[in-house]
Amino acid sequence: MSEPVDPVAEDDTADPALRRRLQEATMRATTADDLGLLVARALASADEDGLVDVAWAVADTPIGPLTVAATPVGLVRVGFGDGDTVADELAAQVSPRVVRLPGRLDDVRRQLDEYFAGLRHDFDVPIDRRLSRGYRLKVLEALSRVPYGAIVTYKDLAVATDNPGAVRAVGTAMATNPIPIVVPCHRVVRSGGSLGNYGGGPETKAWLLRHEGAPLLT
Question: Which residues are catalytic?
């Protein structure tokens, strides 16, 4: 005989409308399998009704798990590691209506798979840049034009954005880049040739540059 399911939905979102749908799905479930199916249907229905502002999923990669998140505008976040942490950040920065919906991120995850397999050099996904503003946004837009396998310095980006004295500000833009890999801050190095800092760690930055055959490491 199937075991009963605890009629309390897991709180996947702070939004009342989404939480109500999850609670209703839980109340209708009689087994754990039923619960998973009903919750998935409830979330899909909420997405169709425009109740999901940010969808997220986890992509498995050679450099570890990456959390990817998108709004209806486009890819808004790529984070290293824990998906729950990224989801919490997005709930505070974008909207509390943040839900794990892997299907919404299928194209992004497919393109990441192709990149890590060496089959893709450029990402073709719409980007939501709302988490970057002012000069940081200008720098990241310039960074997006740095091609696969190339490297630039912080000074190069400062010059490219008509602010040659803003090397430190460029470094801050790299450190706060919300969409690493797709917006390739790993391609930015120090003028002396050293790698510089990276959100995923220096080993990850070195791995990505080797993967792309960057001239610094060949």
Answer: 185
